[in-house]
């Protein structure tokens, strides 16, 4: 039996696409093994968001060759799109597919194994206008399912290569989204995570929008208990979307909204389309509608020319907004971007030190946010057994542990959070709430 292994770098969109490759090859009768094992076929789903990501993509190619020098190697995705010449001249892999033609990967692998000569598929990505779907019916190793509904970016932030790697914005037609969502729920998934490069811009190219899509999903997808938005820009969050979220309990009470910096001068240098004051006002408005909502964010520290004062300003503004938690990224130079040509690049030591300080800030904010939920009833989708208990996430994406029957795995249950111990939220079945006072420890 032909064996294959997949290495996935980068974002949740890549995770979704790798699931598509896996499903297509399994349907052809291939057997999946770990990327650490010898395989007949290796697929490297690459990332190009930083130069480091590109380096890791090349390392995976070398790892595959070391494991089996006779294996067929297929390299796919953003790094292929942005480093075609280097890969063709230096890496000598069998199949190269950029940001288009991904749906043909399984067929190309099969033909290559049969001896057919391959033609690398790397097109002018900015000319792409049609969304390439990868229909997936089940995520074998996950309770929640991802559904890629959008691709591409038209924003051109100064630090980012993604518009050149992923192309122009394009959306999956509503009816196709609904069909994939129905298949996912029919196979047992109760939560679907809507993902994309700019998920909030869904539908702009096909005369619809994200709110309209989610309304249809709530009405038409049987068995769907929760919809989560993977990430969304603040300027993509309409009042219509917020009003719908407020009224519809199926929409997760968590918005991951990248701010990247909370200092106006740095935001201007980043070419971000807002200022701190406006962002703060939108956070305040969102909380006026949904007081307990989790609002998390991405922050880049050590951007070129960022001063100590500007960094402190960012940290203080984040504290004032009481964001629930942060994903923190020390700035990484990316070739072919505006920021790469700027003066004032900082030493790695400074970037790491600032990242560590902001991480402490994030930890304190997250602890305070989690402690607010002690004593509250929440819905948890239990995903696995962990530390002798069942483990899952709430609508707000809080991690919760509960002593429940294993039959509750992969199910959504109502529980009451009884304590916060050793950085863990502990809960019990809502039917078994103790009469004594719950407490945070």
TrEMBL record:
GO molecular function: 4 iron, 4 sulfur cluster binding; metal ion binding; tRNA (N(6)-L-threonylcarbamoyladenosine(37)-C(2))-methylthiotransferase activity
Catalytic activity: N(6)-L-threonylcarbamoyladenosine(37) in tRNA + (sulfur carrier)-SH + AH2 + 2 S-adenosyl-L-methionine = 2-methylsulfanyl-N(6)-L-threonylcarbamoyladenosine(37) in tRNA + (sulfur carrier)-H + 5'-deoxyadenosine + L-methionine + A + S-adenosyl-L-homocysteine + 2 H(+)
Start and end residues of each Radical SAM core domain: 139-368
Keyword annotations of the record: 4Fe-4S, Cytoplasm, Iron, Iron-sulfur, Metal-binding, S-adenosyl-L-methionine, Transferase, tRNA processing
Necessary cofactors: [4Fe-4S] cluster
Enzyme Commission number(s) of this protein: 2.8.4.5
Residues of the signal peptide: none
Pfam families: Radical_SAM, UPF0004
Keyword check for 4Fe-4S: yes
PROSITE patterns on file: MTTASE_N, MTTASE_RADICAL, RADICAL_SAM
Segments forming domain MTTase N-terminal: 2-114
PANTHER family registered for this protein in UniProt: RADICAL SAM PROTEINS, THREONYLCARBAMOYLADENOSINE TRNA METHYLTHIOTRANSFERASE
Family membership: Belongs to the methylthiotransferase family. MtaB subfamily.
Stated role: Catalyzes the methylthiolation of N6-threonylcarbamoyladenosine (t(6)A), leading to the formation of 2-methylthio-N6-threonylcarbamoyladenosine (ms(2)t(6)A) at position 37 in tRNAs that read codons beginning with adenine.
Name listed for the protein in its UniProt record: Threonylcarbamoyladenosine tRNA methylthiotransferase MtaB
Organism in which the protein naturally occurs: Longicatena caecimuris
């Amino acid at each position: 039996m032909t064996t294959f292994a997949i290495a996935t770098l980068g974002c949740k969109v890549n995770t979704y696409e790798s699931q598509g490759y896996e499903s297509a090859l399994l349907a052809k009768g291939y057997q999946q093994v770990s990327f650490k094992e010898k395989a007949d076929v290796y697929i490297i789903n690459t990332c190009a968001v930083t130069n480091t990501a590109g380096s890791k993509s090349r390392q995976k190619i070398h790892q595959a060759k070391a494991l089996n020098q006779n294996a067929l190697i297929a390299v796919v995705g953003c790094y292929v799109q942005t480093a075609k010449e280097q890969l063709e001249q230096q890496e000598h892999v069998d199949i190269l597919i950029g940001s288009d033609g991904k749906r043909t990967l399984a067929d190309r692998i099969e033909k290559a194994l049969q001896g057919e000569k391959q033609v690398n598929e790397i097109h002018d990505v900015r000319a792409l206008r049609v969304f390439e779907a990868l229909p997936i019916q089940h995520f074998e190793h996950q309770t929640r399912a991802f559904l890629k509904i959008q691709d591409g970016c038209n924003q051109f932030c100064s630090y980012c290569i993604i518009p050149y790697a992923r192309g122009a914005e394009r959306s999956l037609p509503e009816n196709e989204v609904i069909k994939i969502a129905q298949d996912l729920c029919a196979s047992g998934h109760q939560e679907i995570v809507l993902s994309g490069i700019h998920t909030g811009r869904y539908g702009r190219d096909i005369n619809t929008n994200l709110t309209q899509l989610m309304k249809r999903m709530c009405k038409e997808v049987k068995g769907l208990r929760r919809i989560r938005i993977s990430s969304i820009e603040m300027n993509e969050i309409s009042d219509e979307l917020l009003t719908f979220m407020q009224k519809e309990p199926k929409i997760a009470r968590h918005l991951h909204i990248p701010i990247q910096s909370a200092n106006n001068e740095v935001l201007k240098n980043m070419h971000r389309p807002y200022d701190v004051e406006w962002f703060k006002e939108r956070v305040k408005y969102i909380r006026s509608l949904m007081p307990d909502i989790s609002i998390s964010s991405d922050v880049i520290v050590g951007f070129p020319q960022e001063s100590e004062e500007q960094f402190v300003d960012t940290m203080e503004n984040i504290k004032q907004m009481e964001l629930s938690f942060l994903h923190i990224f020390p700035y990484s130079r990316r070739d072919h971007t505006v920021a790469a040509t700027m003066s004032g690049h900082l030493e790695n030591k400074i970037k790491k030190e600032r990242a560590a300080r902001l991480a402490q800030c994030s930890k304190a904010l997250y602890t305070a946010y989690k402690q607010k939920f002690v004593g509250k009833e929440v819905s948890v989708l239990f995903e696995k057994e962990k530390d002798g208990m069942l483990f899952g996430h709430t609508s707000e994406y809080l991690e919760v542990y509960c002593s429940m029957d294993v039959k509750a795995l992969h199910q959504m249950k109502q529980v009451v959070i009884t304590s916060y111990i050793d950085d863990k939220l502990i809960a019990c079945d809502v039917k078994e709430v103790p009469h004594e006072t719950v407490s945070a420890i």
